[in-house]
Amino acid sequence: MHYDPIKRQAGRIFRSKGGRVVFFRLLNLLLLRSWYIRKEIRKWARFATPDASVLDAGSGFGQYVHYVSKLSGNFTVKGIDVKEEEIEICNRFFRSDGHGSKIVFEKADLTTFVEPDAYDLILCVDVLEHIQEDVLVMENLQKSLKKGGCLIISTPSDKGGSDVHKNGDTSFIEEHVRDGYAVEEIEQKLGRAGFRRIESLYSYGKPGQLSWKLSMKYPVKMLNLGKVFFLVLPLYYLVIFPVAMLLNSRDLYKKHSSGTGLIVKAVK
């Protein structure tokens, strides 16, 4: 299943300033990983300096940059991505939103991007599973953090991530170069990259897995059949939305012994 074309189409639909804000709110509600990432950002922000610098490594639509910018207007935030179209859209939106030089987006490849000792927080949300040279990226992000800075990662786990549950299954998202990480694997790789304190927790337990199927997997499968299904989606979500919200909330506040996602925090 090709996921990127659907994402590009959605991003183009919500290009206007008001549309982009609505789009961010929808993403934050529907994507369970956003619930986890925003929770971790809030924890970090309680102890952050007023002039903290943040990097979103693989910024995509820019929803996490937008969230961080609303926590404090004094934070300096940079988003980087390999997709030039998204970089242009994000720069245009944030300039129109009055952020000036505090927020900027740049095209960059994480396998070569390094800004030594520049950031207090780096986000890497659903990115590493797309990159073969993952340890190299981890090393670059470690170098780019200030001492004591924190890296927050969201990625599929090896417990059914990318909808791969047994031998012979293929990834739901064909753009992934790996189906998911074992906790031991990603922690060892981060240790090799120079991080000194690493914490991992499972996301997408049973409630989250059901929510993901209802709110993401089935709609994406429909949209891959044809663009006409964009007309059906509002009615579909009208029914599914309350159920997905209850499931996401349940997943966020329950400790999982296993899950199809991982949230990892690593400190330099």
General description of the model:
This protein has one domain (4-207, 257-267): Rossmann fold (3-Layer(aba) Sandwich). Helix content is 45%, strand content 18%. It is built from 9 helices and 7 strands. The termini are far apart. The mean pLDDT is 88.
Derived from helix and strand composition plus strand pairing, the structural class reads alpha/beta
What fold name goes in the CATH topology slot?
Rossmann fold
CATH architecture: 3-Layer(aba) Sandwich
Highest CATH level, the class:
Alpha Beta
Poorly predicted parts: none
Quaternary structure annotation:
single chain
- The percent range for helix content is 40-55%
Strand arrangement across the biggest beta sheet: 3-2-1-4-5-7-6
Strand content: 15-25%
Count of DSSP-assigned helices: 9
According to DSSP, the number of beta strands is: 7
Provide a brief overview of the structure.
It is built from 9 helices and 7 strands. It has helices at 4-13, 17-30, 32-45, 63-71, 84-96, 134-144, 183-192, 206-225, 233-252; strands at residues 53-57, 76-81, 103-107, 119-125, 145-156, 197-203, 261-267.
Which SSEs are present, and which pair or pack?
Blueprint (H helix, E strand, L loop, with lengths): L3 H10 L3 H14 L1 H14 L7 E5 L5 H9 L4 E6 L2 H13 L6 E5 L11 E7 L8 H11 E12 L26 H10 L4 E7 L2 H20 L7 H20 L8 E7 L1
Parallel strand pairs: 1-2, 1-4, 2-3, 4-5
Antiparallel strand pairs: 5-7, 6-7
